[in-house]
Specification:
Order of helices and strands: EHEHHEHEHEEEEHHHHHHHHHH
Helix content: 40-55%
Structural class: alpha/beta
Shape: globular
Distance between the termini: 36 Å
Number of domains: 2
């Protein structure tokens, strides 16, 4: 196991009706004037925004609102939010929504206290400070409610890039599983796929003797395999929703990734798909991650056998371990298909002829990336081609 520091300061406020306490927690963490940041009309129609605003009013905390966050959040709205925070002396940002809203809130939080262009932080610069951010989570997926990460799309060139720092970790995150019960099945499945991908990016490692985090990863994956079909079949299954919501947080606070080398190639390769086609991040991962697995599994066949046997219940073939590894990858892809996820370019709406452009955008920098297996631009093209042709 590698040396590591683990830091997770977020207070998680979990359970039914906890959004009604948002004002109390903003006050606890020193908020004097709040920007409520949210997405579309669902938060308004459901009454969630009204409940959050009432909780702030009950504590005497003034607020401004900025809606309109889209999936794969854009830099144009971030700039608008930065200007609003500066003009209105906002000192606290409350994100009401899913990962896209939270990512946008974090970008605004950095930019509002920075003299330069906030995009600097998505081009390699590390932020030294940010406005405090908190969340009221409405979808279990990105894990942004507990992480220091943010992903934004720059509309000029449609570049999708990430930033990360402990200063972006939310002060608190309110997590009411009931808020996820109205999600369409497709969004639920996209979220579940993202959660599993966050675990797999950590699970496939070259670090040895990390049994505790291996087992933690497998516990989250097994939970997703069990609970996702339950909520697809019954969207109002609170207990299944609760398990999935907490799994999403556990998957991305990095408690399952400490002390081990990580990969993150699948996320990077997928980001180009969702930037170009504006597809759901989870849907893109459903196409890319099994393709990446098929390309790299020979690097450590026994790690893929471990996934196959421990997570998907495949029988170990000691005489031909490659067959077990491939059976596990097939089982993963079949699971994704069973919950309504696309498995190839056609189902995602991607085009094979765009692969050179996708590779070119992904290859910005040194052209080789990844912790488990270093990939060249040619390797990335091969993964896209595997994804394009994938079948059950």
């Amino acid at each position: 196991m590698n040396n590591f520091n683990f830091y997770s300061p977020t207070e998680f406020v979990f359970g039914k009706g906890r959004e009604n306490d948002a004002g109390k927690y903003v006050k606890k963490y020193g908020g004097k004037k709040v920007l409520i940041h949210f997405g579309g009309q669902s938060a308004q129609k459901s009454g969630l925004l009204d409940r959050v605003k009432a909780s702030l009013e009950n504590e005497g905390i003034p607020y401004k609102e900025l809606g309109g966050v889209k999936p794969n959040p854009r830099d144009s709205l971030v700039y608008k939010g930065i200007e609003l925070c500066r003009n209105e002396d906002i000192d606290f940002i409350l994100a009401v929504g899913g990962g896209s809203v939270i990512d946008s809130a974090k970008a605004i939080a950095m930019g509002a206290v920075y003299d330069g262009d906030f995009w600097d932080f998505y081009s390699g610069k590390q932020p030294e400070k940010a406005l405090p951010v908190a969340t009221v989570l409405t979808i279990a997926a990105a894990g942004s409610e507990g992480s220091g990460d943010s992903v934004i799309t720059k509309e000029d060139g449609m570049l999708k890039r990430g930033a990360g720092s402990d200063v972006l970790r939310p002060r608190f995150s309110i997590m009411d599983p009931e808020l996820t019960q109205t999600l369409p099945a497709y969004q639920t499945a996209c979220g579940a796929t993202d959660i599993m991908a966050h675990v797999f990016e950590r699970y496939f490692t070259n670090t040895t003797e990390v049994e505790i985090t291996d087992r933690l990863c497998e516990a989250v994956l097994l939970t997703m395999v069990k609970e996702t079909p339950r909520v697809i079949a019954d969207p109002n299954n609170y207990q299944a929703r609760a398990n999935i919501m907490w799994a999403g947080t556990v998957a991305h606070t990095n408690i399952v990734g400490v002390g081990r080398e990580q990969d993150w190639n699948s996320h990077g390769i997928e980001h180009e798909l969702s930037a170009l086609y504006d597809c759901a991040h989870g849907a893109g991962l459903a196409v890319i991650m099994p393709a990446w697995m098929e390309f790299v599994y020979k690097h450590n066949v026994m790690r893929f056998c471990q996934m196959a046997t421990r997570v998907f219940g495949c029988q170990m073939d000691f005489e031909n371990p490659e067959s077990t590894a491939l059976a596990g990858i097939k089982a993963f892809r079949s699971f994704l298909h069973s919950i309504g996820m696309p498995i190839n370019f056609d189902e995602l709406g991607a085009k094979r002829e765009d692969i050179p452009a996708l590779v070119e955008k992904f290859g910005l920098g040194d052209g080789r990336t990844g912790g488990f297996v270093h990939l060249s631009s040619e390797d990335v093209a091969k993964i896209y081609n595997i994804a394009a042709d994938a079948q059950l």
